[in-house]
Write a structure and sequence with these properties.
about 525 residues; Rossmann fold
């Protein structure tokens, strides 16, 4: 006879999914619904941060209460010993108490993270570790589960809890937006940290992820460095039970370097370091970034598609052997951290043009994340434009001014740029749009968007006669500003001209004519 009823088993299986599943996929919400049943409150399709939204919600609060209650009931049932639990039932109970203890201490982990981030706690001390140990020992005190409370396992679990809390916070706060394109990005970042199999990660991969390079691709201005930063600051950091301290400060684990801003000589010196006298001006030994990064850190090279072939060869050696040489030295040095790079270039094209090494590319792309363009996010959910504007406004003005600035920016975009504006500069351009309107009450793109596809479609013979006529009527009307004159020039009735005007295109054409030289 089973210890758990079918309904209880379904509940515990849903909790197991909450413990080990990817929190940024729709499956997370489905698991919440399965665990809570009628008590579930529909909120969002996926976990996503909104400008006025906290990462806590009513479903999480109800889950915490229900799991606490279930843990107490099942522990008493196990101790009564009427029916011996199966191995599967013990595993479900262990996942349940893992969830319970994590949520008991998540506020402590968050407080520790924030104190180390702002510098008020430099030693990464976690005095609540004793309380955590006591909680786990008490909940594991059931027949057949004694090994789960062994000290080494609990120390590792404690470190995993801290990592999970940091990872969720970083990803949730760094990558804003409610579109499914952004949700998929958050899920991909989570997977870069924990892989697709969190059980295996906890068992054996937690100390080996630094061996897997990360390549972030996507258009310029889409937050590639934010992605790399989220991964870096979510790394696993061991905990020492004797000192009650973590081995490193998470906020120190990210070392970014923008390669496009440096000359090839400076790139080599900054990356690999140099020995005194290695070149003119090398008055002393210099420790490069690869050497500075510790075993829990990440070096991030932005715009790696711009580097010279000679440096590509040296980076290939780093990825293959985890060794490098300082300039002017012959003794190899070790690289202990994780390597990440980003580019907005099409590396397949760069390889075809012999500007980027194919073997380096294959070393880099063991783990690859693509950041979506702003246009993709808006196409998925047009309301996300105002969400992002509000988020950017919140970084610039006080709370009481956020709504006014957001409305002002959205009105300008609707009036001057139109809903079809492609945002070639992505979120970075949107940020500048908000700042321009804040300062000057206007924004004009620094460069006109690329072709809207009309010319290509025209040449390819893909347009209907109605589409061509509408475009041409709008083009001439933008010049004349008069239906009768437009009709005269085109040899049409003025009512036909009026019916063919594309208002969105007209707005863009007028804006371009009024401000052709605006920066």
């Amino acid at each position: 006879m089973a210890v758990f009823s079918p309904d209880e088993t379904a509940f515990l299986e849903a909790v197991s999914e909450l413990v080990y599943g990817n929190p940024f996929l729709p499956a997370r919400i489905a698991a919440e619904k399965a665990a809570l049943g009628p008590a579930f409150v529909p909120l969002q399709e996926v976990w996503t941060a909104q400008p006025r939204h906290d990462d806590e919600n009513v479903n999480v609060q109800r889950l915490a209460a229900r799991t606490e209650q279930a843990a107490a009931v099942f522990q008493q049932r196990f101790r009564a010993g009427r029916t011996p639990p199966t191995g599967y039932e013990l595993q479900l109970y262990q996942d349940l108490i893992t969830y319970v203890v994590y949520y008991r201490h998540q506020a402590n982990f968050l407080d520790l993270m924030q104190r180390t981030d702002d510098g008020s706690e430099t030693g990464c001390a976690a005095p609540f570790f004793d309380r955590f140990i006591a909680d786990m020992a008490e909940l594991c005190d059931v027949p057949g589960l004694g090994r789960a409370a062994e000290p080494a396992d609990l120390v590792h679990l404690f470190a995993c809890f801290y990592q999970v809390r940091r990872a969720f916070w970083r990803i949730f706060r760094f990558l804003i937006g409610g579109s499914m394109a952004t949700a998929r990005l958050r899920a991909a970042v989570w997977q870069s940290v924990f892989t697709h199999d969190a059980h295996r990660y906890r068992r054996c991969l937690y100390g080996r992820m630094r061996d897997i390079p990360l390549l972030v691709t996507g258009p310029s201005g889409t937050g590639k460095e934010l992605v790399a930063r989220a991964v870096a600051l979510s790394s696993y950091i061991p905990f020492a039970a004797a000192s009650r301290r973590f081995a490193a400060r998470p906020a120190d684990q990210f070392s970014p370097l923008n390669l496009s801003a440096l000359s090839p000589a400076l790139i080599e010196s900054e990356l690999f370091g140099h020995r005194r006298g290695a070149f003119t001006g090398a008055s002393g030994d210099h420790v490069g970034w690869l050497e500075q990064v510790g075993p829990h850190g990440m070096v991030f090279l932005d715009e790696i598609g711009d580097i010279q072939p000679g440096i590509q060869v040296k980076l290939l050696r780093v990825l293959e052997t985890r060794t490098f040489y300082r300039l002017g030295e012959t003794a190899p040095r070790g690289f202990a951290g994780k390597f990440a790079a980003a580019t907005s270039r099409d590396l397949d094209h760069e390889i075809a043009e012999a500007r980027f090494r194919q073997d380096l590319y294959y070393r880099l792309c063991a783990d690859r994340i693509r950041t979506p363009s702003l246009q993709e996010q808006i196409a998925d959910d047009p309301s996300q434009l105002s969400v992002l504007v509000e988020y950017l406004a919140r970084r610039l003005v006080e709370e009481e001014e956020v709504d006014a600035l957001t409305n002002e920016v959205m009105a300008w975009i609707e009036r001057r740029l139109g809903p079809d504006y492609p945002w070639p500069g992505n979120v970075r351009e949107l940020d500048q749009c908000v700042r321009n309107i804040l300062v000057r009450s206007e924004y004009y793109p620094g460069r006109r968007p690329a072709s809207d596809g009309f010319e290509d479609a025209f040449r390819a013979g893909k347009l209907s006669a109605d589409e061509v006529l509408s475009r041409y009527c709008t083009q001439v009307y933008a010049l004349t500003g008069n239906y009768q004159e437009t009709a005269r020039r085109l040899g049409l009735d003025h009512r036909t001209v009026k019916a063919r005007i594309d208002e969105r295109l007209l707005t863009r054409l007028r804006s371009a004519r009024e401000h052709p030289e605006q920066p």
